[in-house]
Amino acid sequence: MALYTVLANFTDQGIRNIKDTTHRAEAVEGAARKAGVTVKSIQWTLGAYDLICQFEAPDDATVTAFGLTIGMQGNVRTQTLRTYTRDEMNAILARLPA
């Protein structure tokens, strides 16, 4: 499974309905299960982003469809980053020429 980090900011709609944010997170977890995505974490943050989430998915297409489904709700705008573990990065580095 591939790991993805999602950086999210509330839209105007999302911040107007901020009291529902933890309930929306539960709905995201349910939607993820249906889409074949595993939620590793959802965290609320201070700073440039309002949320940082980590997901596992079998491929880019699965996580993209899932992200678009969440985006259609209108509460957040996201940036999705493909994330590599140390072992995955070591395997990538091993492919580089000497």
List keywords for this structure.
alpha+beta; single chain; 98 residues; 4 helices; 4-stranded antiparallel β-sheet; Alpha-Beta Plaits
* Number of helical segments with 4 or more residues: 4
Biggest β-sheet: strands ordered side by side in the sheet: 2-3-1-4
Major sheet description: 4 strands, antiparallel
Order of helices and strands: EHHEEHEH
CATH fold field value: Alpha-Beta Plaits
**Whole-number mean pLDDT:** 97
Category by helix and strand content: alpha+beta
What level of helicity do the residues show?
Answer: 40-55%
Number of domains: 1
Tell me the β content.
25-35%
> CATH H-level name... which superfamily?
Ribosomal protein S6/Translation elongation factor EF1B
Number of strands: 4
Could you give the distance between the termini?
29 Å
CATH top level? Alpha Beta
Describe this structure in words.
The protein is α+β, with helices and mostly antiparallel strands and about 100 residues long. It has a single domain, classed as Ribosomal protein S6/Translation elongation factor EF1B (Alpha-Beta Plaits). Helix content is about 40%, strand content about 30%. It has four helices and four strands. A four-stranded antiparallel β-sheet has the order 2-3-1-4. A hairpin with a 6-residue loop joins strand 2 and strand 3.
